[in-house]
Structure formats: structure tokens, C-alpha cells
Amino acid sequence: MEAVSASRIFHVLSLLFTSLILFVQPATTLAATDEPLHQVSSEVCKNCHKEIYKQWKGSMHAQSTALKDPIHATFYKKVVGSPVEEGVKHKASGKYPICLQCHAPNAAVDKTTKLDAKPAYTEGVNCVACHTLAKFKGTTGKDGKLLLGLKAYERKNELQGPQGFNQGLTKLTASDDLFGGAGADDDSKPNPHTDGEVELDGKKIQALPMAGNPGLMKTNAACMGCHDKRNNPHGVPLCQTGNEYAGSNVNCQSCHMPVAGGMVDHGMGGGHNRAMLKRSVVFTLDAVKNGENLNATVKLKNMQPHSLPTGAPFRNIYLKLAAYDASGNVVWQNAEGHPANSDSKAYFAYLLADDKGDPAMPPKATQLGVDSRLKPYEVRILSYTIPAKGAVLVRGELFYNLLWPVLVEKFKHLPEDLVAPESIAIAEVSL
């Protein structure tokens, strides 16, 4: 019994000594030998957050750089240059590429353009890119110029979380506890957010202190630095989700980071996510015979608090409507191929123009073109008169494209899955 008691006393004293050290030296600063937080790879976070890492890895945030997103890479190489060379400048302005402030924010912190120099650069918008944002300053500076990407934020060398680890009371009560509050947690997994540098499964993980910041992390402020608005060198707005969204009481995370199974989804689905696209619009079709014709009515309701589509200006949606005979042959259709030219009301896009009003590419546009997209929560009704002869079925289908038709033709090097239309809604009426 005496031997057992001595062992217990030694164990308790060891825990007490360890707890006192942690209490006197809280893990709120990084050791001099540790990497700055913005250079920490998401592979480090994967050690504890495996499911979240998996979700993020499949997201467009993880594919945001010119090394991984073929569409962005196409424009980046045209307006900037190689993403693996140091010192390249934006060709029009001669300055550090502003696009890196959103697409490769960790590289932007270090003012480097060699995106393959560190994993944290290659990973694009990785874990620390978002979780080191501390305060949203807005997207317009005192001089009236836009603050884009990281420029719209104050950052900290301390991770920011929606909740953080609120241990102040625990530490206060532990000071009056003979055992330093250590007894209950001595078997728990070491936590680099609270315990300083730890070893997990044989791996050394540096201190990654985290503070609670729900005012940023649970609100649109976490997103708007990159997703509010973006102008080209001529002052023409290319992306302006923030302007479209103004006045809505729905925050971005409620749709793009929903809670499922007790966990916030870090897949952050958007225009590349088929499930997100399919639930974005309510699409109904009605057709009734009226003499020798059919009166068809298409009803579209945008379920989003922003325009549909939104984001990059070359995203578009189009409607294909057709009537079929009893053998499945098309007897009427609203357009052959893409309806952009032959049925403009069936084409929903944000177009850009040059000085003459002709269509222009984003870097060269000097004015806005036609904006035929669905506005936030808009209900739009399209009417068609269809010859009734031989028709037994009317079918409508909505397609989503990441690129304008002209860009699909121009960028032959892009993978098929990026240029092919995505079916997002179908409706049929049997006659």
C-alpha cells in the first residue's frame, strides 16, 4: 500500500508541476523556430481534422491557384505570366499581381510569385489563409480605392476560430486546486491550440494558438474580402456578389458551409458543385393546347440571395426547350445549339463590352454589357408558342456553364468537365 501511495503521490505531483508550467507559460506565442502561421500547410491540420481536411481538399478553395485551376491559370498566364517564377508583375499595371491576394493569399503575405515554393502557397486558400483573418476593414479604402483579398483584412499570427478555446475560468479555478485541474484531462489528445508544441503519432506539431472570433468567422465578413467585388484595370466590375447580396439577412455560411452531422462543411460548394447548382433554382414548366398551338410557360425562381449565376462574369445559365413526337423526334425547339443568339431571353449571363459596345473579355472591357441574370429571389416567366402538330411531350432543361460560349470555343486546352454544360434542372409535360 505504501508503494502504491507513493506512486500516486509522484503521479499527482508530476501532473501538478506540468500544470503549473502551462499555467505560468500559456501557449499563446510561437517559438522562434516555428514557421509563421501563414506558411503552415493544411497537411499539419489534417493530423487532427481529417474529415474537415478531406472536405477542404475537394473544394475550389484548395484548387484556387494558377497551379491547380485551369480556368484561372489561363487568365493568369495571359495577364501576369508564369505562376512558378519569382518577381513576375501584372502586365497592365507593372505591380505585384493583385489576383494573388485572393487566389494565393499566403504567397501574397510574403510578396512572392513563385507559388510552388511552399506547400502553403500551392494550397491556395488553405486553413490558415482563412483562420488568420482577424478583422474585416471593408472593401473600400479611405482613398476610395478597392481593398481586394487580404488587403481588406487585418491579420494576426494567431488562429481565429468561431468559438476558440475559452479556458480563462478553468485556469482561475485550477490555481486553487491542489491538483492544478489536471486530473480530468491527463488522458486526452494533446492539443496544439492550447498546449503549445505537441507530439502526435510521432510527429512534432508546433504551437498553433487559437482565439475565439465569432464576429468574423460566423459572418459574411469572413468571405467578402474576396467575394464582394472586383474591378478590372478600367474600373469595370467583373465580380460583384457583394453588391448583389446587399441587404440580405442570410449569411454566406448558412448555404456554403452548412452544418451536417454536427460538423461545419468545409467543402464550401459553389459554382463548381452540382448539388449546390441543382438546389439554386426552382424550374417549372406548363404547356396547354390552344388550337393549333401549344402555349408553354417556363417559370424560374432564383432561390439565392445573390444573382444567379454569380461570381466570375463568364458563368452563365441557358434554357433548352423542345417538343417531341411519339417516336422521340424533335418537332420544335427554341434554339439549335446554344440559345445566346437565337433566343436571347433563354440566356442568363453577365456580359462585358468595349468602347463600341461589342462583347469584350474581362481584362479589356471598358463598360458593362447586358446583365440578363436572375436577380436575388427573382421569379421570371418565359412564354413560348409551339406548333401542336405531332407533339406529345414538351421538355425543358436548364444548363449551367462556367464559361461563355466564345470562351468554350477559344480555350480548347481546358478539360472537358470544365467546358461541358452541366444540367441543373429538368421539367417535362406530357400532352
Give an overview in words.
The structure is a single chain. The protein has 3 domains: 2-30 and 163-212, no CATH class; 37-162 and 214-264, no CATH class; 274-430, Intracellular proteinase inhibitor BsuPI (Immunoglobulin-like, Sandwich). The chain is built from 16 helices and 19 strands. The strands form 7 sheets. Strands 13, 14, 15, 16, 18 and 19 form a 6-stranded antiparallel beta sheet that branches. It is 25% helix and 23% strand.
Outline of this structure?
By secondary structure, the protein is an alpha+beta fold.
Labels describing this entry:
single chain, alpha+beta, Immunoglobulin-like, 3 domains, six-stranded antiparallel sheet, three-stranded antiparallel sheet, 16 helices, 25% helix, disordered N terminus
Write the SSE topology:
Blueprint (H helix, E strand, L loop, with lengths): L1 H23 L17 H5 L3 H8 L12 H10 L20 H4 L1 H5 L9 H4 L4 H5 L1 E4 L16 E3 L3 E3 L6 H7 L23 E3 L2 E3 L4 E3 L1 H4 L3 H7 L2 E2 L5 E3 L1 H5 L6 H5 L2 E2 L2 E2 L9 H5 L2 E10 L2 E10 L13 E9 L5 E4 L13 E7 L13 E5 L7 E9 L5 E9 L3 H6 L5 H4 L2 E9 L1
Parallel strand pairs: 3-6
Antiparallel strand pairs: 1-2, 4-5, 7-8, 9-10, 11-12, 12-17, 13-14, 13-15, 13-18, 15-16, 18-19
